[in-house]
Amino acid sequence: MSTNKKKPVRIALLGCGTVGGGVLRLLRDNQAHLAAQVGAPLEVAHVLVRNPDRVRVPECEPGWVTTDASKVLDDPTVDLVAEVIGGEQPALSYIEQAVDAGKSVVSANKMLLARHGASLLARASKAGVDLAFEASVGGGIPVIRTLRDSLTSDWVSSVHALLNGTCNYILTRMRNEGKVFDEILADAQRLGYAEAEPSLDVDGHDATQKLVVLSMLAFGAEVDDRQVHVEGIRAIDDVDFRFAERFGFALKHLAIGVERDAALELRVHPALIPGSSPLAGVNGVLNGVFVHGRALGPCLLVGQGAGEKPTAVSVVSDIVDVARARVAGVGGLSTGAIRTTPKALVPMDDVECRYYLRFDVVDQPGVLAAIAGALGRHGVSVEHMVQEARSDNGGSASILMITHTSREGAVQRALREVSGHEFMKAAARLIRIEDT
Ligand code: NDP
Ligand code: HSE
C-alpha cells in the first residue's frame, strides 16, 4: 500500500509560538518526505493556544486553532501530542492525560523534563507509548539521541556543555562589541532565543534544567534541579573578558556533569576555559556539548541551541520517530529502555578546580599581603598574580589571581575573611577555571 493510502498519524500541537510555528512550517514544507519516513501521512488535528486572536504563521489553518484543552486531549482520533507550551503547568497535566489516553508525546520542555522526567518516562513506559524530548536540550543538536541511542554501549564519565543559547549569545556580543547586557538580551528576545521569562536564561536555571535532563541519559541519574549549584551571567564585567584573554582563557557559561564514584558533580556557572578548548570557539547562539565516554573518549556536538527553525527540526524529527514506531507497532520501545535512579550530588564545598579571583581594592600598602595571607591561611596557593590600576576609579586597583587547584570551601572561607577589610571596593569576583 502506498504511504498516502495508509491511515494518517494525527497530531495535536499544544502551543503555537516560536517553536510551534516552526513545527507547522516544517510539517508543511517537508510533508511528502516525512510521510515517506513514517510510512503514513502526518496530519495536524488541533493547535491548542492561549489567545485565539493572536496572528499565527500562515501554515496554521484557522480551523485547527482552539483554546479548549479537553477537545484536544479527549479526541480519540489523535495519536500523538507535541507539547511546545513551556513551563510546568498546565503542560504537565496535559502530557499526563495524553499518555494515560495512550497517545505518544513529544516535548521541548526542559523545565518539565528536569522536574518530572523520571515519573513521566515511567508513566509512558507503563502505557506503552513514547515520550521523546530531543528539543528540550541543545535546540537543533541531536544530543538526546546521541546519549540515548548512540552511546548505550559505553559509560559517560563527564559532560561539559554550553547549554543556553541566550547566555552564549550575550557573552559573545559583550566580548566582541562591548555592548551592554540589557541591549543584547532585548535582541535575544526579538530573535526568539530567550524564554518567555528571560531570567530563566540569564540566571542559569534553563541551563541547569537541561543539565539535569542530560544527566538522566548520560548518567542514568534522577536529580532535583533545585539542588544543583547555579550561577548566571549578570555579574560578568567587561574587565573579566579582558583579563581572561590575558591569561589565555575564554569566558563561557558552562554546565558541568562529572561522575564521582557513586555520586555526581553537577554545577552551572560562568567559567574560564583554555583558549584551545573545543568549546572556546563555540560562539553566538550556538550550543556545544563535550562528552567524554570511558571507552569512547571525547565527542563534541555543536549546533544552533535555540530559535524557531533548529528547534523545530528536533521536534519534528521526534514526531517522525514516535509516529514511525506507532505505525510499526513498537510504540514505547525506546522510551521503555531509559533507566534512571536517584543519585547524590557532590557538595559544592568539596569541588576542586583552579580559580580566577579579582579583588577591586584601594591601592595602598599592605593590601596585597592581607589578601595573600588570607588565601594562605586557608591553604589556597596562588599560581599567577597581576595588579592593574583601574582607570574608572582613581586610587584603586584590580588584583587578579589564578590559584592552583584548590577546594571550593577553602577559597570561599578565604574570600569571606578578605571581605571584612575596608580596602575592598566591591565583593571579590570568583570565576572557576575548567581545564576542558
Ligand atoms: P512561546 O512563548 O513563543 O510560545 C508558547 C505557546 O504556548 C504560545 O502559542 C502560547 O499561546 C501557548 N500557551 C502558553 N500557555 C498556554 C496555555 N496555558 N494553554 C494553551 N497554550 C498556551 O514559547 P517557545 O515557542 O519559545 O517555547 C516553547 C517551548 O519550547 C518551551 O518549553 C521552551 O523552553 C522550549 N524551547 C524553546 C526554544 C526557543 O528557541 N524558543 C528552543 C528549545 C526549546 P499564545 O500564542 O496564544 O500566547
Ligand atoms: N532559551 C533557551 C536558550 C532556548 O536560550 O537556550 C533553547 O532551549
Summarize this entry quickly.
By secondary structure, the protein is of the alpha/beta class. Helices cover 36% and strands 26% of the residues.
Helix and strand topology:
Layout: E1 9-14, H1 18-29, H2 31-38, E2 42-48, E3 65-66, H3 69-73, E4 80-83, H4 91-100, E5 104-107, H5 110-127, E6 131-132, H6 143-150, E7 156-162, H7 165-177, H8 181-190, H9 199-202, H10 205-218, E8 221-222, E9 229-230, H11 238-246, E10 249-260, E11 263-274, E12 286-293, E13 297-304, H12 308-327, H13 333-336, E14 341-342, E15 352-362, H14 367-377, E16 382-389, E17 396-403, E18 406-407, H15 408-419, E19 429-433
Parallel strand pairs: 1-2, 1-4, 2-3, 4-5, 5-6, 8-14, 9-11, 11-19
Antiparallel strand pairs: 7-10, 7-12, 10-11, 12-13, 15-17, 15-18, 15-19, 16-17
The protein binds NADPH dihydro-nicotinamide-adenine-dinucleotide phosphate and L-homoserine.
